[in-house]
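Input for the complex:
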Amino acid sequence: MVETRRQAVVLLATLVLLLVLPALATAVGMPYLLTLGSQVVIYAIAAASLDLLIGYAGLPSFGHAGFFGLGAYVVGILAFHAADQSRFLGLVGGATQAWIVWPAAIGVCALAALATGALSLRTAGVSFIMITLAFAQMLYFLFVALKIYGGTDGLGFDSRNTLPGIDPSSDTEFYYICVMALVLVLGVFRFLVRSRFGMVLEGLRQNERRMAAIGLASYRVRLVAFTIAGAGAGLAGALDANLLRYVSPDALHWTMSGDLLVMVVLGGVGSLYGAFYGAVAFVGLQSLLSQWTEHWMIVLGPILVGVVLLARRGLWGVLAGASDGGADGGGGAR
Amino acid sequence: MLTISGLMASYGHSQVLFGLDLHVGEGEMVTLLGRNGMGKTTAIRTLMGLLAARGGRIEFRGEDITGRAPERVARLGIGLVPEGRQIFPSLTVRENLVATAANRAGHRAPWTVERIGELFPRLTERASQMAATLSGGEQQMLAIGRALMTNPALLVLDEATEGLAPLIRAEIWACIGRLRREGQSILIVDKNLAALRRLADRHVVIEKGRTVWSGDGPALDAAPEVARRYLGLGE
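Predicted:
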């Protein structure tokens, strides 16, 4: 996965646009663009982590919202116990500092992904889709049942997590934190897919039995990928809870997994950066079309079909053209 | 190094191997010969753990490996170059080589991409090219290179030159000969008896899933009925 000149230009232009968005939003008198921008960036992190699974590891997870929502709930629960001066399960006190809460969200989601991945990766194909969906739905119903954390009403909290020297309560500063997180996550994922680990994932996706005959155990490699993807979704969930200062079981619902999947497909499966453009298209269409009708998915559906049929490499393929090699090149099977 | 005795295997209810016996010594090159459909590839698949053995025993370096998972067999030091190459098409040549490279036995001079390039200069020229764009012969060279990068104690080649042009075939035989001279233990399945007669130390002939003859090159020369009866040659 080495970027072509055109891809580098598109990425650079996108980064510049992201950096000037707050100034642009102020200039055109549309401050809500900043919140929309933060939402796009957060979804892009979650969608990129799902793309790592689908596009690179060949694992069509339909339960990614489980980790996204769990990351959000870690923020919510720790904020709840911090405000309440109580302890989670009588053991862990609350916290509002980002340097504690965000790594905690990432860690909890990585552990959850390790545990659920250890079981679900023993299956493949439709069974894998169903078991990942089932795990996410179990989490959904768990949080619906937990009345202490608001049940179906969700859990609101007063302020975002704090960071030394930065004021995340400012929408602009929080937006830049999200952009930095996206750049960091994409950088880590890019490093991973270009590393031997990424090559092995790609090889497994293409021919699992061949990999086994060379001495590679697919289970462990895929479990590592599943855990990393879960951690990425957890970070996105933690940021989402901070953006909204609210978390509800909706973040864990299977429709959220579906939304992330749509973003990955719109952006281009196995393109990594495509997740961002998929998130832009999804959030953009949602906010434009939902002003017109609450059934905005009626319009999104045909668009998705069009992208799948006409632009198989998604928006990233349309914007940045074909790759000159590496993991996102020549992926005819995708 | 490798001793297979009385190996039996089947696909569902159809039994293919009825008692295969084979031995490869340290630094030896042994061929597994037989007509199409006699069980040569099945024998390799069973050896690698890709197909469950129904009976018999496979011993590698004194260890019973019968029924082990393919990745565990490979990790013990058996490198397979499969029938049909099966390279990873959307990885580059270099990525195909390094993705699964390993030196589990701790060789002092392990195979590197550069050494593979010396063996197959064409691969160096195409290092950053997607493997799918290689010619058949180059793909075969890549498949051999990929197996060598795992530094196997025993290299197993299943129909390594099938469907290749004579010139490319000769190039591959020359490389296999070089590996043999460097002391690499090799088990090879192929129909090209003319080339193998010169290269290999011993030959094992199978017919309907059973070992029916084994011996060295001169013994095979002295027994033309073996080639005629079991390999369909010289009729």
